[in-house]
Amino acid sequence: MYTLGARAHRLVRSATAVLDGPLGGSSRGTGGDGNETPSGLLYEIAKNLALSGVGRIVLVRGGGGDDDGGNAIVDDVGYFDGSLDDLGAAYRRATLAEVGGGVVEGGDVVVNDDDGGVAEDSFGDDGASLLAEYVRRLNPGVRVNVVSRSALLNSLCGGSSDEDKSVIATEVGDSYDDDEGYDQDDVISLGANPVVICVDRSTSMQLKMNDACRGRGGRGREANNGGPSRRVVPFISVETAGLHAKLFCDFGPNFVVVDEDGETPRTTLLHRVEEVMNDDDGNAGKIGGEMRLYSVNCLQGERHDVSRGDVIEFHGNNDDDHGVRVAFPKCRVISVKSPTCFIVTQWDGATSTNQAAESKLAADSNSSIMTSLSESKARSFARIKLPKQLSFLSLREILKPKDNEGSIMTSASNRWDDETLFAASDLDKGYDPIRRRLVMSSMLALDEFVQKYGRLPLRSSVEKNYDGLKHKRTDLERFQSLVQKIIKNDGDPSTSIESKDSLVARFAQTCRAKFTPVQAFAGALGAQEVLKVATGLYNPVRQILLYDCDEVLQGSGEGTSEAGADGTDSSEPVTGLSYIFGDVTSNKLARSRLFLVGAGAIGCELLKNLAAMGVGTGVGSTRRGSIILTDMDTIEKSNLSRQLLFRDHDVGEFKSVAARSAVMRFCPNLRVEAHTSRVGEEDDGPFDDEFWSSCNVVLNALDNVEARLFVDSQCVTHGLGLIDAGTLGPKGNVQVVIPQLSESYGSSADPPEPDIPVCTLKNFPYEISHTIQWARDLFDGYFNRRPRQANDYVSEMTQIEDLHAFGQSMIVKMGDDAAIAMAEELGDDLGPLPFVVGADYHDPDYISAVNKHALDWAINQAHVLFYATMSELIQKHPLDSVDDDDMPFWSGTRRAPKPLRFVPLDSEEDEVSAQQVIINERIAQFVSAAARLRMESYLDAHNDKSVTLISLEDALSALEEKAKLLEKKKKNSNAFLHNLSGGGKDSDTLSLILERLNEAKIGATFLPHLNLVDFEKDDESNGHVAFITAASNLRAMAYGIPPVDAMETRRVAGRIVPAMITTTALVSALSCLELVKLLKGLPLTVHRNAFVNLALPFFAFTSPMPAEEVSGVDGRKHTIWSRLTCSGPISMTLEHFLKDILLTAGCTDNIEISSVSYGPYMIFANFLHSEDQELLNTPLLDVLKDAVISEDSVEMTSVDENAMKGNQEGTVRLSAEQKTMLSKLDQKTFIDFTVLVEDQETGEEFELPTVRFMKGKDPRILHNDN
């Protein structure tokens, strides 16, 4: 929701996704296509849609019925081979195990009927019911229906037979019966927001379904026969063939995109707006005419993000003479002068498509409003996003285009050369027109091959068909012939099959099988396009996206195991992975030992993919494959919406433990070690040097940079491959680190985000993030810090005998201002009311007293925060004041606030404007939220939250009553509020402190205990976000900052990183692809770092940067991966170690060691220690421990063993960090040092490769291996 927004989320909930793909099951009549195994791609899309919150999924069963031409509608028999779909098989195993209440053993489901599980017989032969049950368990809120394809086609094309209505969308497990009261119109309806998705279907089937979605009959004619035009149902097709994937979108001729990228337009601070006569580009301003031009200049240090044609809006305080807030006019950018200046004119409200904008301006807009821009009333500006209309072609129009006379042309090459129809998924491959033609031709040839031979191509060099007879032509030759026939009319000799034989051959030899990473990649794209068409959010794919990763086939010439795939006998089942890559690669994956750090959204997707690929299932002569998983977090309710392995009953469990149990259902032979330990500098835990050295590859599924950098450093230290993945809404990235070859993750890490200055938060906010952070701090102060402070002082306050002395000591220790503030807080929080009534949480009198106290307190805080404090700031810095540089004080990022106060509607002293009514309501919202949380500090309302709820009406009534009372006692009230806001400097400080402390002492005698509140962002009923939203928006209103809704406040205050299951699935797929490359040992240029933005959509695949080479001694180069290894006993002296370094590095006599460091600790510096024989004769490890203990990088002191352990009396106590470091030094099998050397002849200094000291056994020490 945080990524899509509330509007888009509602539309997703109203959407109906119709999925037509191989459902699996033994019976073809149930849509199984003759395969027991369903399409893994179909399950991927269904999973992504369910976790995205789509309202309804309709599954299409094949078979049954006739089309309007009298031809039987049959399934794509032969187009899908479930025996080579590893992901589909894994999903089927997992679903049967979960819904059957049993376990999976040896690849078979063993159902536990005694536990009330659903027997396999209920689902094994019915792929639709099995998938429906899986979707329900992912998201119980998704409705799942089943429809026959004939009924769906008839409905889309305009048919309406009673039989079709009975089949269209009855709930799975129910039967349609008129007597049961079903409304036939409701049953047949696909809803107001449907989309049809064809998955792993042939081109012929895609054409048939797309024609139906366009309202055409089976032969492409309009189904309404000249009647009123029918609504076009959006259509998407997704299919994979081996290492290739294709996505097609047809959203109709009039699809509207309401937001192209989903990004919040950046608010840019404004310096000035001034009218100009012309913009030097031929645009003249017409004074007194229809158009005036204005120059917009950014504040110094700011840069705008607008382009010519953009529409912008201004923000700031623009009140008329009656105090009514008047909106600034919207302006269109005429030209851009520089990154800080551009020219605008008033916008008439018309878009480029001549559609009226939501806030269309009248032609005779008041020019005085534009004049207000020139009077510096506007403080900032931002772009406005305008809707954009797109037109799509149908699949038939692309594949079978017509000439000018309406005849179907024999070739579609003119369409394939149109780059506007193809979305680039790879900057290298996507813009290669020859490759594009060949891949499209291969996809079409695949359909023709299946139609002709009833099956997919086999890769055998000698064809042996199912009749057992050998044939002259291989399937590869047959397939190449079909491709040649399709492209023969292109007229481009460069597209001959001979010149591109390898690409077509790779396609033909792998298209039969399914590759899990490609399926996961395509499933993410397909689901994302469904969300786009349902919401109008983000740019859709226009219109075909081709993706392949055939570069991963390099080095796969080790032979393949096709037995069983081509009709011959086989003792071992062939997987899709082994079919594509051969046994050597599949065995490498099975026997690999992977370390997966993180079991959140990305971690779950990775586990699912790895299980389907059989990673960690094999046993070799020297190694057992396994996946080591760690995550110290527990599962929260909010995790269930994007983490496919977790269910409701897992909430509160450790993610790693629950993930291990869940993923075993996908692959029972998988070996997973689950840990709950943190990976970081603090403590190695189970992850010591021996552990790291035992791994092949590390996969990062982390959400913070600090942990990523630590894992990266361990991978560099131990020479391990690393694959790091991350997401931010629709954006995702994957970085692969190849040992010895590429740069590391830390080589190009992004800098940390800067903190907001305290002065900005306190007095000078200019962005909504500033006011939200201020309100978040206010929440912690009011409802956590202050109650804790009160509880800490209850006992002390009751025991104080000399309050005067206590007050004086506070002033001495804390200073006047801090002492007054603390006394005020203690007086407020421990004051005599409401404790004098009693402390019975169920006593109505006590609850009433608390309610009154909380309302009074909240009203007082609102007045202090939004009126008194701001008034004092303006009093201290008047609007016309200047700073030390004689520049206007209220300029730049410093903007003067407008104090806000509550004014009763029947006030006799103040005129109540429309703007004041809004202010009153905002203040009432703050009082309502603040008073509620204040009551919960005194009442134990966990079982009955209604006790503390304070309605907006009650808050308004209390505010009006308080305002009238203050009018009568205006002077006393002002002085009191002035003191509360930190003023009252002329009063007796000690007297004020003693007065408030005395109140606190009285209340403390009742021994109260205030409840502490920790901010919880996910519980919408607790009022936490409501308080922060009210406080933040009130402050924003005072400073002229546009307010935001509660959802955006929750995102910022809760530091929520927007996540989308589609982006998560996509980066996980790319990570698994890079894993295959790493384990195959492919060269650096074959690997791909990825940056994707599904919103645009944009895909950038680049080879990793090679590791930077550093010049060393004698011009020799080394990288971060280089090591100089010195070994010796643990008693080796520092002097001996220095000599070994020079010897190992091959340094000449003129080279001397300048310094030796271990992390931040310098253990040797030539200019200090070259003559220190005592230090040189000290064992190396003792010198290192001395440095850690002393925390001195230069001056070393000798510390004996007892001192190191902190046992000797008088020694310095060791910090926890020092103890951890010393413990690690004892446990490490090697220690890496940074060494600088100097050429004595030239004076040049060089850094040697990392010097590694390998600990050996000291012959003087007796080792006991027991």
TrEMBL record:
Alphabetized UniProt keyword annotations: ATP-binding, Coiled coil, Ligase, Nucleotide-binding, Ubl conjugation pathway
Catalytic residues (UniProt): 759
Family matches, as PROSITE patterns: UBIQUITIN_ACTIVAT_2 (PS00865)
Domain Ubiquitin-activating enzyme E1 C-terminal, first and last residues per copy: 1087-1204
Keyword Cell membrane appears in the UniProt entry: no
GO molecular-function terms, A-Z: ATP binding; ligase activity
Pfam family, one: UBA_E1_SCCH
Name listed for the protein in its UniProt record: Ubiquitin-activating enzyme E1 C-terminal domain-containing protein
Organism: Cyclostephanos tholiformis
